[in-house]
Amino acid sequence: MSIIQEYETIRQNIGKGRFDSINDYLSTINVDNTKILLLSDVLNDGKEYKKFNKWFRESLKPFEIMKHSNNNYSVTLDQKHFCYDWLDEIKTSDAKYGDGHCYDDAFFEYLEKHKNYINGVLKFDSENGMFCVYCENQKDADSICYLLSSLYKNEEKMINLIRDIKKQYDYDFDFSI
To answer: I need a surface site. Which of 34, 106, 133, 135 has the fewest CB within 10 A?
Structure first.
């Protein structure tokens, strides 16, 4: 088995999101250059993988993954973490416009473009105060969460996505509230 085949097998076993995020982890860890950590170090050393796993969970914030009793998983973003004002198309600490349904529309469109990245079926179930998508397994939850968290933290990409979604869905916010 070639190294590429071996890594593809590992990628399938741990999930695309988790595997792909290892590069981000290595970039963070290898900043000081005192000791260079390699992909193989993370994959083959249980201690290093535990460190990576802790970093991975932290890197997903403000999104959360929850396991449910029916063995499904949900990926959520609570309104207390909504930081984009959809009316003014800015990132702010006091977002007045944009709710779970807005994020649902945006993230649905974004995930549709990346559907080959996710193996299972997604069920979107957002409310005003929360974005929520259900998936069938932990690997897909990790992948979805990694994709959305990376997007959400990239202000330019999020603002562009918001603009596109507002046009596509013809959003009209109620100013009289």
So the answer is: 34
